[in-house]
TrEMBL record:
GO biological process: response to antibiotic
CDD domains on file: Ere-like
One family name in Pfam for this protein: Erythro_esteras
Listed name of the protein: Erythromycin esterase family protein
InterPro entries per UniProt: Emycin_Estase, Hydrolase/PRTase-associated, UCP036794_erythomycin
Domain of life of the native organism: Bacteria
Length: 421
């Protein structure tokens, strides 16, 4: 039996057809045994990745007691959503609240698919006690300036003794005029940057927050914004010097933030995490390991054990996707061509042009362990060039615990939001 036919036959043997969302009930039940359920995506612009993750998340929250959803988004913008879904008196529409996502690429979270999920979460939270309300949090590191604003505004609001220290710390950043690129070049090549200032501020906030008698949710918000400031400073300082260093800083920050939110919710907390496959699929099962890169999936597995972590990857064979031709450019709907021959997505297609689910176990994991190219589409995408960088060599059954294949997909539905880079 040759390799290609062997993999095709293994897919046909072990895959479960997906014809209705109820066909994922078994996956939700299996995933619910873990404390951390990581749901991936092969692009940031595919509608079905969002809608299927939303349906799985609803099941995990309403039927299996999961506590919150944490996403590859900015903490301050996600906090606007978190506050909205927990406030019964806030009568705004989800679309109005999602205007908080004004930094490019806005479409990742300001879209109709997320608006529908946010509306569901708000309605769900009206039916449960205050301490059982589901949360929505952002794990990413990019919001350096927004997080600094949040810290200053909150400390000023409560007339905190920490305000002047925060103002002094952030005065270091003033010459860079809120430009990530300017700070990155200056701190990376010309100086030590503002590292000392943000480290000391985070330490001070953690040490003195209890003295301010801040309620728990606001204390968490203050601490995470300070954590973002510290780690974003490092991320941008490394950005111009080391791809692996900046990548690792970002993913370690996301894992650290996830841990902080879990600690906040207590020992019975259970998390659903939404991020790109490149972040949730264990980096040790890809060529990222050779480059010295780690990711959230690897870190969470290492810190909490394989039995408490369930990772589900997503992929598609062809369709349309929202992306941009270069960083900061306007979004556009782009045709994603059929997957490259002999890639993981092509093998799934050759095994049958239908949506399907694979769940990996001790019984079948070896059949899907051989390294194979696995497509990844980012916010910047040029289909004509994808053979040169969009396929990540991966051992699929080591990278994930399950995989959802949606054969033909369509583009996400962005909301009209004014975007800044």
């Amino acid at each position: 039996m040759d390799l290609e036919n062997g993999l095709k036959e293994s897919i046909q043997k072990w895959s479960i057809p997906i014809k209705d969302i109820s066909d994922l009930d078994g996956l939700a039940m299996r995933a619910s045994e873990a404390k951390y359920v990581l749901l991936g995506e092969a692009s940031h612009g595919t509608s079905e990745f969002y809608t299927v993750r939303a349906e799985l998340s609803k099941k995990l929250i309403s039927e299996h007691g999961f506590t919150f959803i944490a996403v590859e988004g900015d903490w301050p913008a996600c906090q606007a959503v978190n506050a909205y879904i927990k406030d019964n008196e806030d009568k705004r529409s989800p679309e109005e609240v999602l205007k908080a996502f004004h930094r490019w690429p806005t479409w990742m979270w300001a879209n109709k698919e997320i608006a529908s999920l946010v509306g569901w979460m708000k309605d769900y939270n009206k039916t449960v006690p205050e301490d059982k309300k589901a949360g929505f949090y952002g794990l990413d590191v990019y919001s350096l300036w927004e997080s600094m604003d949040e810290i200053i505004n909150y400390l000023r609001k409560i007339n905190s003794s920490e305000l002047q220290a925060a103002l002094d710390a952030f005065s270091c950043f003033e010459p860079f005029n809120r430009s990530n690129e300017t700070y990155a070049i200056s701190a990376g090549y010309l100086s030590d940057g503002c590292r000392k200032e943000v480290i000391e501020l985070l330490s001070s906030i953690r040490k003195n927050a209890h003295k301010e008698k801040i309620d728990r949710e606001n204390a968490l918000n203050l601490e995470i914004n300070a954590l973002v400031a510290r780690n974003a400073e490092q991320y941008y300082r490394l950005m111009v010097m080391s791809d692996a260093g900046s990548w690792n800083t970002r993913d370690m920050h996301m894992a650290e933030t996830l841990n902080a939110v879990m600690d906040f919710h207590g020992k019975n907390a259970k998390a659903v995490v939404w991020e790109h496959n490149t972040h949730v699929g264990d980096a040790r099962a890809t060529d990222m390991k050779k480059a010295g890169m780690v990711n959230v999936g690897q870190i969470v597995r290492e810190e909490h054990g394989m039995e408490d972590v369930f990772i589900c990857g997503f992929g598609t064979h062809r369709g349309t996707v929202i992306a941009a031709g270069q960083w900061g450019a306007p979004l556009r709907e782009i045709d994603a061509p059929p997957a490259q021959a002999f890639s993981w997505e092509d093998e799934l297609f050759q095994a049958g042009d239908e949506d399907k689910l694979l769940i990996f176990s001790d019984e079948n994991r070896n059949e899907f362990a051989k390294e194979i190219g696995h497509r990844a589409i980012g916010v910047v995408y040029e289909p004509d060039m994808e053979q040169y960088g969009n396929y990540v060599p991966s051992s699929i059954s080591r990278r994930y615990d399950a995989f959802i294949f949606l054969s033909q997909t369509k583009a996400l539905s962005p909301l009209a939001i004014d975007s800044g880079i």
